[in-house]
UniProtKB/TrEMBL annotation:
Name this protein carries in UniProt: Undecaprenyl-diphosphatase
Broad class of where this protein is predominantly found: membrane
Source domain of life: Bacteria
GO cellular component, one term: plasma membrane
Endpoints of the signal sequence: none
VTT domain residues: 44-156
Native source species: Thalassolituus maritimus
Transmembrane segments: 12-34, 54-75, 138-160, 172-191
Length: 196
């Protein structure tokens, strides 16, 4: 059975990639345009097949998610109500309205649960900052929910990748990686066209 040699791929590059994509998909506005979950799935399958340690993989993704939400919150704090004047939200006001409604309804819980809800994930921290949520509350919720997200998503994907590695040959795994990435890109394009 074929194995992926991580030294060829570069374990450091894979870890940097999971950190970067986890961060970018959490960033305000940018996260709405990036097919993060599909890309993370493809990367995580590769990491599991290449025996990158699970704890290190989850830690890098968690750090990226924590930083992405944190940057979005700080942007919201700095911008305040003028976030409504951002060109993206003038073209797509429904994204901001959804984030505001979710935050107003759930408060601190919106930070903890919002990262698990795709379309509003990158908007809620921005809204929380713009609506002057207590920084202490935000950073507490961010610190609790980031590892929970890492375990729920990345660890599950990793275990799936281990199962694939133990069941399929390298060409099959490579095909699945390519397919997952392609599907993620197609879905992202379709969603963006729908909301133009």
């Amino acid at each position: 059975m074929g194995e992926i040699n991580v030294s060829e791929w570069g374990a450091g590059l894979l870890l940097l990639a999971v950190f970067s994509i986890s961060m970018v998909e959490s960033l305000a506005v940018v996260g709405l345009l990036v097919p993060g979950i599909g890309l993370l799935l493809a990367l995580t399958l590769a990491a599991a097949a290449g025996d990158i340690p699970l704890w290190l993989w989850v830690a890098c993704g968690t750090a990226g998610a924590f930083l992405g939400d944190g940057v979005s919150f700080l942007l919201g704090q700095r911008t305040g109500p003028s976030v409504h004047s951002w060109r993206f939200f003038q073209r797509h006001p429904h994204w901001l309205r959804r984030g505001e409604a979710f935050f107003q309804r759930w408060g601190i819980w919106s930070i903890m649960t919002g990262r698990f809800i795709g379309p509003i994930r990158p908007v809620v921290p921005l809204v929380a900052g713009a609506m002057r949520m207590s920084p202490r509350q935000f950073w507490f919720a961010n610190a609790i929910s980031s590892p929970a997200w890492g375990m729920a998503y990345l660890a599950t994907m990793y275990w799936l990748g281990e199962a694939f590695r133990d069941t399929f040959d390298l060409p099959v795994i490579a095909s699945l990686l390519a397919f997952a990435t392609l599907i993620a890109l197609v879905v992202s394009v379709l969603v963006n066209q729908r909301h133009r």
